[in-house]
Amino acid sequence: MFVLRSLQLFGSELTNAGLATILDNCPHLVYLDVRHCFNIHMDITLRAKCAGIKTMKLPHGSTDDYEFQIENPVRTRARKPRRDYKPYV
Q1: Cα 82 to Cα 84: distance, rounded to the nearest angstrom
Q2: Closest by alpha carbon to 37, among 53, 20, 57?
Q3: In terms of Cα–Cα distance, which of 40, 32, 36 is closest to 16?
Q4: Within 13 A of 55's CA, how many CA atoms are on the CB side?
Q5: Which of 18, 28, 34, 73 has an alpha carbon within 20 to 30 A of 47's alpha carbon?
Q6: Predicted model pTM
Q7: Residue 2 pLDDT level (bands cut at 50, 70, 90)
Protein backbone atom coordinates (compact mmCIF):
# COMPACT_ATOMS: atom_id res chain seq x y z
CA MET A 1 0.00 0.00 0.00
CA PHE A 2 3.08 2.21 -0.10
CA VAL A 3 1.99 4.00 -3.30
CA LEU A 4 -1.68 4.41 -2.33
CA ARG A 5 -2.78 8.03 -2.72
CA SER A 6 -6.57 7.90 -2.29
CA LEU A 7 -8.72 5.73 -0.03
CA GLN A 8 -12.46 5.77 0.66
CA LEU A 9 -13.71 3.54 3.50
CA PHE A 10 -17.21 4.97 3.85
CA GLY A 11 -19.27 3.04 6.42
CA SER A 12 -16.50 0.63 7.35
CA GLU A 13 -16.10 -0.94 10.80
CA LEU A 14 -12.48 0.23 10.82
CA THR A 15 -11.04 1.06 14.26
CA ASN A 16 -8.37 3.48 15.46
CA ALA A 17 -5.78 0.69 15.32
CA GLY A 18 -6.69 -0.14 11.73
CA LEU A 19 -6.58 3.49 10.65
CA ALA A 20 -3.22 3.98 12.38
CA THR A 21 -1.84 0.97 10.48
CA ILE A 22 -3.06 2.39 7.18
CA LEU A 23 -1.58 5.80 7.94
CA ASP A 24 1.76 4.29 8.99
CA ASN A 25 2.00 2.28 5.77
CA CYS A 26 0.65 4.80 3.26
CA PRO A 27 2.97 7.82 3.44
CA HIS A 28 1.76 9.22 0.10
CA LEU A 29 -1.94 9.29 1.01
CA VAL A 30 -3.51 12.63 0.01
CA TYR A 31 -7.23 11.74 0.21
CA LEU A 32 -8.93 9.75 2.97
CA ASP A 33 -12.68 9.34 3.47
CA VAL A 34 -13.72 7.61 6.71
CA ARG A 35 -17.23 9.07 6.93
CA HIS A 36 -19.67 6.85 8.80
CA CYS A 37 -16.77 4.80 10.23
CA PHE A 38 -18.14 5.17 13.74
CA ASN A 39 -15.53 2.97 15.44
CA ILE A 40 -12.91 5.63 14.71
CA HIS A 41 -12.43 8.25 17.41
CA MET A 42 -10.09 10.98 16.19
CA ASP A 43 -7.74 11.48 19.13
CA ILE A 44 -4.62 13.66 19.16
CA THR A 45 -2.40 10.83 17.91
CA LEU A 46 -4.58 10.07 14.89
CA ARG A 47 -4.99 13.75 14.06
CA ALA A 48 -1.20 14.13 14.06
CA LYS A 49 -0.82 11.13 11.72
CA CYS A 50 -3.42 12.68 9.37
CA ALA A 51 -1.68 16.06 9.26
CA GLY A 52 -0.13 15.41 5.82
CA ILE A 53 -3.39 14.33 4.18
CA LYS A 54 -4.68 17.08 1.90
CA THR A 55 -8.37 16.02 1.94
CA MET A 56 -9.69 14.25 5.02
CA LYS A 57 -13.36 13.35 5.51
CA LEU A 58 -14.01 12.53 9.18
CA PRO A 59 -16.40 9.89 10.63
CA HIS A 60 -19.18 12.35 11.51
CA GLY A 61 -18.58 14.62 8.52
CA SER A 62 -21.26 15.77 6.09
CA THR A 63 -22.39 13.30 3.43
CA ASP A 64 -23.93 15.94 1.16
CA ASP A 65 -21.29 15.33 -1.52
CA TYR A 66 -21.46 11.52 -1.31
CA GLU A 67 -22.48 10.16 -4.71
CA PHE A 68 -24.69 7.31 -3.45
CA GLN A 69 -27.97 7.53 -1.59
CA ILE A 70 -27.63 6.55 2.07
CA GLU A 71 -29.79 6.45 5.12
CA ASN A 72 -28.40 8.61 7.88
CA PRO A 73 -26.70 7.14 9.86
CA VAL A 74 -25.58 3.90 8.26
CA ARG A 75 -25.47 2.35 11.72
CA THR A 76 -27.33 3.80 14.70
CA ARG A 77 -24.66 3.01 17.27
CA ALA A 78 -21.06 1.91 17.15
CA ARG A 79 -20.26 -1.52 18.43
CA LYS A 80 -17.31 -2.01 20.74
CA PRO A 81 -14.21 -3.07 18.78
CA ARG A 82 -13.47 -6.77 19.01
CA ARG A 83 -10.56 -7.67 21.27
CA ASP A 84 -10.41 -11.40 20.50
CA TYR A 85 -8.10 -11.14 17.49
CA LYS A 86 -4.54 -10.08 16.85
CA PRO A 87 -4.04 -7.39 14.20
CA TYR A 88 -1.70 -8.04 11.29
CA VAL A 89 1.84 -6.96 11.99
Answers
A1: 6
A2: 57
A3: 40
A4: 7
A5: 73
A6: 0.70
A7: confident
